[in-house]
Write a structure and sequence with these properties.
alpha/beta; 2 domains; 6-stranded parallel sheet; elongated; Rossmann fold; single chain; 17 helices; disordered N terminus; disordered C terminus; 7-stranded parallel sheet
Protein backbone atom coordinates (compact mmCIF):
# COMPACT_ATOMS: atom_id res chain seq x y z
CA UNK A 1 0.00 0.00 0.00
CA UNK A 2 1.31 3.42 -0.92
CA UNK A 3 1.75 5.74 2.01
CA UNK A 4 -0.47 8.84 1.73
CA UNK A 5 1.05 12.16 2.66
CA UNK A 6 -0.88 13.99 5.38
CA UNK A 7 -1.98 17.41 4.12
CA UNK A 8 -1.41 19.13 7.45
CA UNK A 9 -3.79 21.48 9.21
CA UNK A 10 -4.70 25.11 8.66
CA UNK A 11 -5.03 27.31 11.74
CA UNK A 12 -7.60 30.07 12.22
CA UNK A 13 -5.11 32.78 11.25
CA UNK A 14 -4.33 31.02 7.97
CA UNK A 15 -0.93 29.64 8.98
CA UNK A 16 -0.35 26.04 7.98
CA UNK A 17 1.03 23.53 10.47
CA UNK A 18 3.68 20.92 9.59
CA UNK A 19 2.46 17.65 8.14
CA UNK A 20 3.45 14.26 9.58
CA UNK A 21 6.58 13.92 7.46
CA UNK A 22 7.76 17.39 8.40
CA UNK A 23 7.18 16.66 12.07
CA UNK A 24 9.11 13.43 11.77
CA UNK A 25 11.99 15.16 10.03
CA UNK A 26 12.25 17.71 12.84
CA UNK A 27 11.87 15.24 15.68
CA UNK A 28 15.07 14.39 17.57
CA UNK A 29 16.75 11.39 15.97
CA UNK A 30 18.68 8.77 17.91
CA UNK A 31 22.35 9.69 17.87
CA UNK A 32 24.92 7.77 15.85
CA UNK A 33 27.48 5.68 17.69
CA UNK A 34 31.19 5.77 16.90
CA UNK A 35 33.37 2.94 18.16
CA UNK A 36 37.15 3.28 18.38
CA UNK A 37 39.32 0.18 18.70
CA UNK A 38 42.97 0.39 19.66
CA UNK A 39 45.27 0.05 22.61
CA UNK A 40 48.41 -1.36 24.12
CA UNK A 41 50.42 1.81 23.48
CA UNK A 42 49.66 5.51 23.51
CA UNK A 43 50.31 5.60 19.77
CA UNK A 44 47.26 3.42 19.19
CA UNK A 45 44.99 5.56 21.38
CA UNK A 46 45.99 9.22 21.05
CA UNK A 47 45.00 9.59 17.36
CA UNK A 48 41.65 7.96 18.11
CA UNK A 49 41.04 10.38 20.98
CA UNK A 50 41.89 13.28 18.67
CA UNK A 51 39.27 12.19 16.14
CA UNK A 52 36.72 11.45 18.87
CA UNK A 53 37.16 14.98 20.26
CA UNK A 54 36.38 16.44 16.85
CA UNK A 55 33.33 14.21 16.37
CA UNK A 56 32.00 15.36 19.74
CA UNK A 57 32.44 18.98 18.62
CA UNK A 58 30.65 18.41 15.30
CA UNK A 59 27.94 16.06 16.60
CA UNK A 60 27.42 16.74 20.33
CA UNK A 61 24.75 14.04 20.66
CA UNK A 62 26.95 11.31 19.17
CA UNK A 63 27.74 8.33 21.34
CA UNK A 64 31.48 7.57 21.44
CA UNK A 65 32.81 4.31 22.83
CA UNK A 66 36.36 2.93 23.04
CA UNK A 67 37.54 -0.67 22.97
CA UNK A 68 40.96 -0.92 24.62
CA UNK A 69 43.34 -3.39 26.24
CA UNK A 70 43.90 -4.09 29.93
CA UNK A 71 47.38 -2.51 29.89
CA UNK A 72 47.85 0.35 32.39
CA UNK A 73 48.74 2.81 29.63
CA UNK A 74 45.25 2.48 28.15
CA UNK A 75 43.62 3.38 31.45
CA UNK A 76 46.05 6.25 32.03
CA UNK A 77 45.40 7.77 28.61
CA UNK A 78 41.63 7.28 28.52
CA UNK A 79 40.80 8.19 32.12
CA UNK A 80 40.90 11.98 31.54
CA UNK A 81 38.49 11.70 28.59
CA UNK A 82 34.67 11.66 28.84
CA UNK A 83 34.37 8.59 26.63
CA UNK A 84 32.93 5.22 27.68
CA UNK A 85 35.13 2.19 27.17
CA UNK A 86 35.15 -1.58 27.17
CA UNK A 87 38.34 -3.36 28.23
CA UNK A 88 39.01 -6.43 26.11
CA UNK A 89 41.25 -9.41 26.96
CA UNK A 90 43.08 -9.14 23.62
CA UNK A 91 46.81 -9.80 23.59
CA UNK A 92 49.58 -9.59 21.02
CA UNK A 93 50.48 -12.45 18.71
CA UNK A 94 53.48 -14.61 19.60
CA UNK A 95 54.36 -18.15 18.57
CA UNK A 96 55.02 -19.17 22.17
CA UNK A 97 51.60 -17.95 23.25
CA UNK A 98 49.55 -18.89 20.19
CA UNK A 99 46.85 -20.72 22.15
CA UNK A 100 46.42 -17.81 24.55
CA UNK A 101 46.30 -15.37 21.65
CA UNK A 102 43.52 -17.33 19.95
CA UNK A 103 41.48 -17.55 23.14
CA UNK A 104 41.85 -13.84 23.85
CA UNK A 105 41.07 -12.96 20.22
CA UNK A 106 37.77 -14.83 20.15
CA UNK A 107 36.80 -13.64 23.64
CA UNK A 108 37.44 -10.06 22.49
CA UNK A 109 35.49 -10.66 19.28
CA UNK A 110 32.51 -11.97 21.25
CA UNK A 111 32.54 -9.09 23.76
CA UNK A 112 32.89 -6.46 21.05
CA UNK A 113 30.13 -7.99 18.94
CA UNK A 114 27.73 -8.09 21.89
CA UNK A 115 28.49 -4.47 22.77
CA UNK A 116 28.01 -3.24 19.21
CA UNK A 117 24.88 -5.32 18.68
CA UNK A 118 23.30 -3.78 21.78
CA UNK A 119 24.51 -0.33 20.72
CA UNK A 120 22.49 -0.45 17.52
CA UNK A 121 19.33 0.15 19.54
CA UNK A 122 18.28 3.01 21.78
CA UNK A 123 15.19 4.06 23.73
CA UNK A 124 12.34 5.70 21.85
CA UNK A 125 11.82 9.23 23.23
CA UNK A 126 8.07 8.92 22.60
CA UNK A 127 7.75 5.35 23.91
CA UNK A 128 10.25 4.84 26.76
CA UNK A 129 9.49 1.12 26.90
CA UNK A 130 10.29 0.65 23.21
CA UNK A 131 13.59 0.46 21.35
CA UNK A 132 14.32 2.08 18.00
CA UNK A 133 17.35 1.54 15.76
CA UNK A 134 20.11 4.13 15.76
CA UNK A 135 20.74 5.75 12.37
CA UNK A 136 24.17 4.15 12.06
CA UNK A 137 27.24 2.82 13.78
CA UNK A 138 30.85 3.12 12.62
CA UNK A 139 33.97 1.35 13.84
CA UNK A 140 37.34 3.09 13.64
CA UNK A 141 40.34 0.77 13.86
CA UNK A 142 43.32 2.61 15.32
CA UNK A 143 45.81 -0.24 15.05
CA UNK A 144 47.26 -2.75 17.47
CA UNK A 145 46.05 -6.15 18.59
CA UNK A 146 42.85 -4.75 20.14
CA UNK A 147 41.53 -3.46 16.84
CA UNK A 148 41.51 -6.72 14.86
CA UNK A 149 38.78 -8.64 16.75
CA UNK A 150 36.64 -5.50 17.01
CA UNK A 151 36.85 -4.77 13.29
CA UNK A 152 36.10 -8.38 12.44
CA UNK A 153 32.99 -8.21 14.64
CA UNK A 154 31.95 -4.99 12.90
CA UNK A 155 32.38 -6.65 9.52
CA UNK A 156 30.14 -9.53 10.61
CA UNK A 157 27.50 -7.03 11.79
CA UNK A 158 27.74 -5.08 8.51
CA UNK A 159 28.99 -1.99 10.34
CA UNK A 160 31.33 0.25 8.30
CA UNK A 161 35.01 -0.03 9.23
CA UNK A 162 37.42 2.89 8.82
CA UNK A 163 41.16 2.59 9.53
CA UNK A 164 43.56 5.10 11.05
CA UNK A 165 47.07 4.31 9.85
CA UNK A 166 49.74 6.68 11.11
CA UNK A 167 52.89 4.65 10.34
CA UNK A 168 54.63 4.62 6.98
CA UNK A 169 54.49 0.83 7.08
CA UNK A 170 51.09 -0.45 8.31
CA UNK A 171 51.30 -2.81 11.26
CA UNK A 172 50.13 -6.42 11.17
CA UNK A 173 46.71 -5.56 12.56
CA UNK A 174 46.00 -2.85 9.98
CA UNK A 175 47.19 -5.08 7.15
CA UNK A 176 44.76 -7.76 8.32
CA UNK A 177 41.87 -5.36 8.92
CA UNK A 178 42.24 -3.76 5.48
CA UNK A 179 40.28 -6.65 3.93
CA UNK A 180 37.21 -5.52 5.90
CA UNK A 181 37.75 -1.75 5.68
CA UNK A 182 35.64 0.73 3.75
CA UNK A 183 38.19 3.54 3.97
CA UNK A 184 41.59 4.31 5.45
CA UNK A 185 43.22 7.54 6.55
CA UNK A 186 47.01 7.76 6.51
CA UNK A 187 49.65 10.09 7.87
CA UNK A 188 52.08 9.34 5.04
CA UNK A 189 51.40 8.86 1.33
CA UNK A 190 53.99 6.06 1.32
CA UNK A 191 51.48 3.76 3.05
CA UNK A 192 49.02 3.95 0.13
CA UNK A 193 50.27 0.86 -1.80
CA UNK A 194 49.45 -1.41 1.14
CA UNK A 195 45.80 -0.37 0.96
CA UNK A 196 45.64 -0.26 -2.83
CA UNK A 197 46.33 -4.00 -2.85
CA UNK A 198 43.15 -4.48 -0.81
CA UNK A 199 41.24 -1.99 -3.00
CA UNK A 200 40.60 0.28 -0.04
CA UNK A 201 40.22 4.01 -0.61
CA UNK A 202 43.10 5.57 1.35
CA UNK A 203 43.62 9.30 1.92
CA UNK A 204 46.76 10.95 3.31
CA UNK A 205 45.68 13.65 5.76
CA UNK A 206 48.44 13.64 8.39
CA UNK A 207 48.31 12.30 11.93
CA UNK A 208 45.29 13.21 14.09
CA UNK A 209 46.53 15.15 17.11
CA UNK A 210 44.67 15.96 20.29
CA UNK A 211 43.02 19.36 20.58
CA UNK A 212 45.70 20.53 23.02
CA UNK A 213 48.17 20.77 20.14
CA UNK A 214 46.09 23.46 18.43
CA UNK A 215 47.30 26.22 20.75
CA UNK A 216 49.53 24.78 23.50
CA UNK A 217 50.70 27.08 26.27
CA UNK A 218 54.30 26.36 27.32
CA UNK A 219 53.70 28.33 30.51
CA UNK A 220 51.32 25.58 31.66
CA UNK A 221 54.11 22.99 31.76
CA UNK A 222 56.65 25.47 33.08
CA UNK A 223 54.33 26.36 35.95
CA UNK A 224 53.25 22.80 36.75
CA UNK A 225 56.84 21.54 36.91
CA UNK A 226 58.40 24.59 38.54
CA UNK A 227 60.80 25.14 35.65
CA UNK A 228 63.01 28.20 35.23
CA UNK A 229 61.50 30.28 32.38
CA UNK A 230 64.92 31.85 31.74
CA UNK A 231 66.64 28.54 30.99
CA UNK A 232 66.36 26.43 27.87
CA UNK A 233 64.67 23.05 28.22
CA UNK A 234 66.04 19.69 27.08
CA UNK A 235 63.21 17.16 27.04
CA UNK A 236 64.00 13.45 27.11
CA UNK A 237 61.18 11.00 26.43
CA UNK A 238 60.85 7.33 25.62
CA UNK A 239 57.22 7.67 24.52
CA UNK A 240 54.30 6.60 26.71
CA UNK A 241 56.11 3.72 28.48
CA UNK A 242 59.63 5.11 28.59
CA UNK A 243 62.79 3.64 27.05
CA UNK A 244 65.43 1.86 29.11
CA UNK A 245 67.97 2.32 26.33
CA UNK A 246 67.48 6.09 26.12
CA UNK A 247 67.47 6.30 29.91
CA UNK A 248 70.83 4.52 30.22
CA UNK A 249 72.41 6.55 27.44
CA UNK A 250 71.37 9.95 28.76
CA UNK A 251 72.29 9.06 32.34
CA UNK A 252 75.80 8.15 31.18
CA UNK A 253 76.15 11.71 29.83
CA UNK A 254 75.07 13.60 32.95
CA UNK A 255 78.58 14.75 33.84
CA UNK A 256 78.95 16.31 30.40
CA UNK A 257 75.48 17.86 30.64
CA UNK A 258 76.49 19.54 33.90
CA UNK A 259 78.64 21.87 31.80
CA UNK A 260 75.39 23.40 30.50
CA UNK A 261 73.88 23.93 33.96
CA UNK A 262 73.93 27.74 33.73
CA UNK A 263 71.74 27.89 30.62
CA UNK A 264 69.84 24.60 30.39
CA UNK A 265 67.50 22.42 32.42
CA UNK A 266 66.20 18.89 31.84
CA UNK A 267 62.83 17.17 32.03
CA UNK A 268 63.32 13.41 31.71
CA UNK A 269 60.22 11.23 31.22
CA UNK A 270 61.65 7.88 32.27
CA UNK A 271 58.54 5.69 32.28
CA UNK A 272 56.87 4.68 35.52
CA UNK A 273 58.66 1.33 35.75
CA UNK A 274 62.05 3.05 35.42
CA UNK A 275 61.39 6.12 37.54
CA UNK A 276 63.24 5.19 40.74
CA UNK A 277 66.32 3.96 38.93
CA UNK A 278 66.63 7.00 36.67
CA UNK A 279 65.90 9.46 39.49
CA UNK A 280 68.70 7.85 41.47
CA UNK A 281 71.14 8.34 38.60
CA UNK A 282 70.33 12.06 38.58
CA UNK A 283 70.88 12.48 42.32
CA UNK A 284 74.37 13.93 41.89
CA UNK A 285 73.70 16.00 38.77
CA UNK A 286 74.37 19.73 38.95
CA UNK A 287 72.14 20.65 36.01
CA UNK A 288 68.58 21.47 37.07
CA UNK A 289 66.29 18.53 36.34
CA UNK A 290 62.88 16.95 36.81
CA UNK A 291 62.60 13.18 36.45
CA UNK A 292 59.04 11.94 35.94
CA UNK A 293 57.44 8.65 35.06
CA UNK A 294 54.87 10.27 32.80
CA UNK A 295 53.37 13.69 32.07
CA UNK A 296 49.79 14.14 30.92
CA UNK A 297 50.00 17.55 29.26
CA UNK A 298 52.44 16.72 26.47
CA UNK A 299 51.25 19.55 24.18
CA UNK A 300 52.38 22.23 26.63
CA UNK A 301 55.57 20.36 27.60
CA UNK A 302 56.63 19.90 23.97
CA UNK A 303 55.84 23.56 23.31
CA UNK A 304 58.13 24.51 26.21
CA UNK A 305 61.03 22.36 24.97
CA UNK A 306 63.97 23.83 23.05
CA UNK A 307 65.42 20.44 22.14
CA UNK A 308 64.24 16.85 22.45
CA UNK A 309 65.68 13.34 22.58
CA UNK A 310 63.10 10.64 21.92
CA UNK A 311 61.78 7.67 20.01
CA UNK A 312 60.19 8.15 16.62
CA UNK A 313 56.83 6.45 16.72
CA UNK A 314 54.40 7.80 14.16
CA UNK A 315 52.44 9.89 16.65
CA UNK A 316 55.62 11.16 18.30
CA UNK A 317 57.10 12.55 15.08
CA UNK A 318 53.82 14.29 14.27
CA UNK A 319 53.78 15.83 17.75
CA UNK A 320 57.40 17.00 17.43
CA UNK A 321 56.52 18.74 14.17
CA UNK A 322 53.33 20.28 15.58
CA UNK A 323 55.24 21.65 18.58
CA UNK A 324 58.09 22.89 16.35
CA UNK A 325 60.68 21.28 18.61
CA UNK A 326 64.05 20.24 17.12
CA UNK A 327 64.60 16.58 17.84
CA UNK A 328 67.27 13.92 18.11
CA UNK A 329 65.41 10.77 17.17
CA UNK A 330 66.59 7.40 18.48
CA UNK A 331 64.34 4.94 16.61
CA UNK A 332 63.41 1.70 18.32
CA UNK A 333 65.77 -0.78 16.61
CA UNK A 334 63.96 -4.10 17.05
CA UNK A 335 60.96 -3.75 14.71
CA UNK A 336 61.48 -5.96 11.68
CA UNK A 337 60.12 -3.35 9.29
CA UNK A 338 62.19 -0.56 10.97
CA UNK A 339 59.20 1.75 10.69
CA UNK A 340 60.51 4.13 13.37
CA UNK A 341 63.56 4.80 11.17
CA UNK A 342 61.24 5.57 8.27
CA UNK A 343 59.09 7.85 10.45
CA UNK A 344 62.15 9.75 11.68
CA UNK A 345 63.43 9.92 8.12
CA UNK A 346 60.52 12.20 7.19
CA UNK A 347 61.70 14.73 9.80
CA UNK A 348 65.32 14.39 8.71
CA UNK A 349 64.38 14.97 5.05
CA UNK A 350 62.69 18.22 6.08
CA UNK A 351 65.67 19.34 8.17
CA UNK A 352 63.68 19.08 11.42
CA UNK A 353 65.60 16.28 13.15
CA UNK A 354 68.74 14.17 13.28
CA UNK A 355 68.91 10.42 13.86
CA UNK A 356 71.13 8.61 16.36
CA UNK A 357 71.12 4.82 16.06
CA UNK A 358 70.22 2.89 19.19
CA UNK A 359 73.41 0.83 18.98
CA UNK A 360 73.85 -2.35 21.06
CA UNK A 361 76.84 -0.95 22.96
CA UNK A 362 75.97 1.87 25.36
CA UNK A 363 79.39 3.54 25.02
CA UNK A 364 79.09 3.72 21.24
CA UNK A 365 75.50 4.92 21.53
CA UNK A 366 76.45 7.60 24.08
CA UNK A 367 79.36 8.84 21.97
CA UNK A 368 77.13 9.29 18.92
CA UNK A 369 74.38 10.95 20.95
CA UNK A 370 76.80 13.38 22.57
CA UNK A 371 78.21 14.38 19.20
CA UNK A 372 74.75 15.49 18.06
CA UNK A 373 73.52 16.74 21.43
CA UNK A 374 76.55 18.86 22.23
CA UNK A 375 76.38 20.44 18.79
CA UNK A 376 72.68 21.32 19.02
CA UNK A 377 72.83 22.62 22.59
CA UNK A 378 75.47 25.15 21.55
CA UNK A 379 74.05 26.13 18.16
CA UNK A 380 70.94 28.30 18.54
CA UNK A 381 70.80 29.13 14.83
CA UNK A 382 70.69 25.44 13.90
CA UNK A 383 67.90 24.80 16.38
CA UNK A 384 65.97 27.74 14.96
CA UNK A 385 66.28 26.35 11.43
CA UNK A 386 65.05 22.94 12.61
CA UNK A 387 62.08 24.54 14.38
CA UNK A 388 61.11 26.38 11.19
CA UNK A 389 61.39 23.12 9.25
CA UNK A 390 58.95 21.54 11.71
CA UNK A 391 56.42 24.28 11.05
CA UNK A 392 56.69 23.70 7.31
CA UNK A 393 55.65 20.03 7.54
CA UNK A 394 53.20 20.11 10.46
CA UNK A 395 49.58 19.30 9.58
CA UNK A 396 47.06 20.53 12.09
CA UNK A 397 43.74 19.58 10.49
CA UNK A 398 43.92 15.78 10.20
CA UNK A 399 41.59 15.03 13.13
CA UNK A 400 38.95 17.48 11.88
CA UNK A 401 39.06 16.11 8.32
CA UNK A 402 38.67 12.53 9.48
CA UNK A 403 35.87 13.44 11.89
CA UNK A 404 33.97 15.28 9.17
CA UNK A 405 34.18 12.24 6.92
CA UNK A 406 33.02 9.87 9.67
CA UNK A 407 30.06 12.10 10.47
CA UNK A 408 29.20 12.22 6.76
CA UNK A 409 29.20 8.42 6.65
CA UNK A 410 26.95 8.34 9.71
CA UNK A 411 24.56 10.75 8.00
CA UNK A 412 24.36 8.54 4.95
CA UNK A 413 27.36 9.67 2.94
CA UNK A 414 29.06 6.30 2.65
CA UNK A 415 28.50 6.25 -1.09
CA UNK A 416 31.03 9.10 -1.43
CA UNK A 417 33.94 6.84 -0.58
CA UNK A 418 35.00 3.36 0.31
CA UNK A 419 34.33 0.28 -1.73
Amino acid sequence: MTKQRSPGLTMDDGRKTMDDDELASRAPRPSSVFYFAGGGTGGHIYPAIAVAEQIAAIEPTAKIHFFCSARPIDERVLDPTPFDRTVLPARGLSLRGLTGFCRSFFASYKAARETMDEGRWTKDDNEPTSLVPRPSSIVVGAGGYVSAPVCWAAHKLNIPVVLLNVDIVPGRANKAIARWADEAFMQFEEAAPYFARKKVKATAVGCPLRSGFASPDPAEATGQLGLDPDKKLLLITGASSGSQSINRTVCSLLEKLDAFADDWQIVHLAGRDNLDNVAGRYSGARISHKVLGYFDDMPSLLAAADLLIGRSGAVSVAEYAAAAVPSICMPYPHHKDRHQYLNAGKLVEAGAAVIVDDLPDNKDRAAWLWEELGDLMTDQAKRDRMAEACKAIARADAAAKIAERLVAIARGGKQDGGR
